[in-house]
């Protein structure tokens, strides 16, 4: 005897349950209409900052080698001072650029985490829906109504819901 929880709901169009499956199963079988909402991500590029820091550190290494070689050859005192100051400036600049890049990553992570509550809500809604392959409709078994294309799009594009985002961003500030 099957429990009521495991019983498939009936389609509101054909009133049968034999071709009904979850939206996850429908998506796995190739029905792209039943695609889940994409998990929020943000790509913060670090390559340019890391490359700039590598060049600055390379300059520092070169200047230190020149400075050490200049000690044996009676390198002029003002030139040595200029090399030391330039090396210190390059090191401090590399540290400042690294700090800035790290802050960009943290800011990007905070912006993405503001979308997680809206994504969780969209996923919960999506997981409760079913798909009837006979009628090719997505429906909500709780209301026993067909889900429109606009509703499917709205759930997939949960990032465009400004109220949820403003509330989440205010909580992180």
UniProtKB/TrEMBL annotation:
Keyword terms: Membrane, Transmembrane, Transmembrane helix
Transmembrane segments: 49-68, 80-102
Source organism, top-level taxon: Bacteria
Full protein name: Uncharacterized protein
Species of the source: Tengunoibacter tsumagoiensis
């Amino acid at each position: 005897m099957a429990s009521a929880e495991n019983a498939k709901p009936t389609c509101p169009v054909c009133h049968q349950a034999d071709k009904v499956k979850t939206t996850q199963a429908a998506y796995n079988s190739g029905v792209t209409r039943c695609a889940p909402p994409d998990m929020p991500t943000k790509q913060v590029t670090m390559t340019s900052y890391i490359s700039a820091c590598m060049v600055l550190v390379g300059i520092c290494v070169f200047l230190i080698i020149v400075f050490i070689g200049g000690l044996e050859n009676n390198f002029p005192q003002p030139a040595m001072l200029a090399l030391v100051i330039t090396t210190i400036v390059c090191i401090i600049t590399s540290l400042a650029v690294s700090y800035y890049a790290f802050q960009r990553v943290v800011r990007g992570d905070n912006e993405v985490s503001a979308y997680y509550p809206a994504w969780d809500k969209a996923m919960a809604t999506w997981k409760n829906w079913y798909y009837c392959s006979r009628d090719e409709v997505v429906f909500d078994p709780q209301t026993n109504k067909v889900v429109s294309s606009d509703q499917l799009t709205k759930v997939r594009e949960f990032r465009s819901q400004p109220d949820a985002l403003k509330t989440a961003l205010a909580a992180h500030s």
